[in-house]
Amino acid sequence: MQQIRKIAIIILPLIVIFSFVVVVNLAGVDFGYQWEQKNMTGFVNQYLRTGSLLPGWYNYPPMVTYVELSATIPYAVPYVLHHGFDLRQLRQYLLDDVVKANFDAFVLNIRKVFVGVTALALVWEYLGVYAVNKRAPEAFFAAAFLGLSWELTYQARWIAPHTVMMQFGALTVMFIMLAMTREKNKKLWIILAGVAAGLATATKYPAGLLLLPVGAAAFFVTKEGGLFNRSRILLFLGIGLAFVAAYLLVAPGTLLEFDAFMSAIRYEMTHYSKGHGQQTVVGGWPHLILELNYFARVLFSAFQPLAVLIFSMSLVGMYAYLRENRDLGITLVSFPVVYVAYFSLQNVMFVSNMVLIMPFLAVFAARGVMYIFMLIPVQPARFAWIGLFAIVVIVNSGWLVYTVGTLQDRNTDRFVKEFVAFVDAAPEETFYVTEQVKEAVTAVDGQTRKNISTELSSEVDWVVFYFYEDMRNPGYWPVNKPGIAPKAFGPLDINLDYYASWQGDDRILLTTVEHARRIGVIFNQ
Fold first, then answer.
1. pLDDT tens digit string along 415-435?
2. What is the pLDDT of residues 208-235, one digit of tens each?
3. What is the 8-class DSSP label of residue 499?
């Protein structure tokens, strides 16, 4: 009984954070349109029509298709129980009665599957950190910093490979931490890390860089017997075989449709070297600076001071790992450094690619919190320090609940009313609005407001327009430039600062005259 109680106390924090993240994300799956979902769900349609799991398209590996297909299980099982198993008839039923007849409901169910798969990362994160030092608070903070990031949660609802890849990355981290901190089964854990890295790569190709920390872990656990000792060589061979086997199990088309695979790889390499519309950046230092700005000020919280605080703790945690367990520290630090350096050389910046380093940074941040905690000599100050990060967790949790509320209200007049309240609270400021915005404001209460005008003048403080209105390229917002629209009224389905081609619900945006001219708003003058 005592042992059961101990296990329950250890696991309870994980259950709490995991349950909260899953419930909140499931409540927000009906967020509207996502631009990639048509292409991704097309592969489900293709399989049901042809019965072939070879997609013929390899810009992304096919893991996403398998995840999507799992959403057909709740439909397939009752059908099989009632009609018996006939694969051809089952495929036809799923195609006609599920995918085609109830496509919108099916898409929501696919999104729920992606939410569940992504949330598994919190389990791997918690168990991996706990394995290192047996401290549940540190494990909790690692899982909480990861799971409560708005940047992760809104992407977790997408039908896209990035957060699934991240989940396998977190699994790789867990196996590495087990291998380097447990006395038994070290080589087995490392082989399993190779399997997890292979599955991550079968989700999105850049995850192949996970072989770096897996290889580093193998190097450090086989120190006896010289540089090229037999045990080390065999372990490296085992990792390679495990990685390739896991990858090919999911993506056999890499070999069976090799020409199509290589064509896709060449296309993506050219794509990232040349640019992608508004997502184009200058590779090298300018790209790296944009990435670091995103990590430090955005990644871990929608509130910049909290994001900076957590990122600062990740830097402290890197130092702590390198100081306390050099081998493990080098192994864990190697991946984010190389991965960020690799992407900074590209001329395209999609922050969705950066979710793979989040499990590493969250582990470091949790370690940083506890490292400073142990340095504080006075007990009340220690409690205050932990209390500070408890507040961070609560604030980030509250923000996620708030964002889900905006998603659930996206087809109401809530956001126009919020804009009107904002205008009424600032009578000294002047708002230049488009006719569409003016009509929406008037419809709220029929009143006219002196600080709202459809005439542009030098005294205007704010330019106000709908996202899809009066733009030279509707829906193509300047990207990777936070702060261009300091205020927005609409559903919080995405961080618009980093996604230029988002085609979700319309929203009211506020910006300055200078920014409005630069981004292409056509003034009605």
1. 999 999 999 999 999 999 988
2. 999 999 999 999 998 877 777 888 899 9
3. -
Rounded to an integer, what distance in angstroms lies between the CA atom of residue 395 and that of residue 44? 39
- What would the pLDDT profile of 152-167 be if each residue is shown by its tens digit? 999 999 999 999 999 9
Is pTM beyond 0.90? Reply is yes
SS3 category, 496: helix
DSSP string, 89-122: HHHHHIIIIIIITTHHHHHHHHHHHHHHHHHHHH
Integer Cα distance of 118 and 121 in angstroms: 6
Asked if 279 and 480 touch (Cβ cutoff 8 Å), the reply is: yes
Rg of the chain over all Cα atoms, to the nearest angstrom = 25
The neighbour count for residue 142, using CB atoms within 10 Å, is 31
Token look-up 């945006």 returns 509
Contact between 501 and 475 (Cβ < 8 Å) = yes
Q: What is the DSSP letter of 56?
A: S
Q: Is 449 helix (H, G, I), strand (E, B) or coil?
A: coil
Bridge pairing between strands 508-511 and 462-466: antiparallel
**What is the four-CA torsion angle of 459, 462, 463, 464, rounded to 10 degrees?**
-140
| Residue 477 to residue 500: CA distance in whole angstroms | 4
Q: How far is CA 394 from CA 28, 115, 140, in A?
A: 19, 21, 13
| Amino acid occupying residue 104 | D
Q: How far apart are CA 68 and CA 114, in angstroms?
A: 8
For residue 92, give Cα distances in angstroms to 47, 62, 86, 99, 199. 11, 22, 10, 10, 29
The predicted pLDDT at position 524 comes to 43
How many alpha carbons lie under 13 Å from residue 380 in its C-beta half-sphere? 0
- Helix (H) / strand (E) element for 404: namely helix 379-408
455 Cβ contact list (under 8 Å, min separation 6): 432, 525
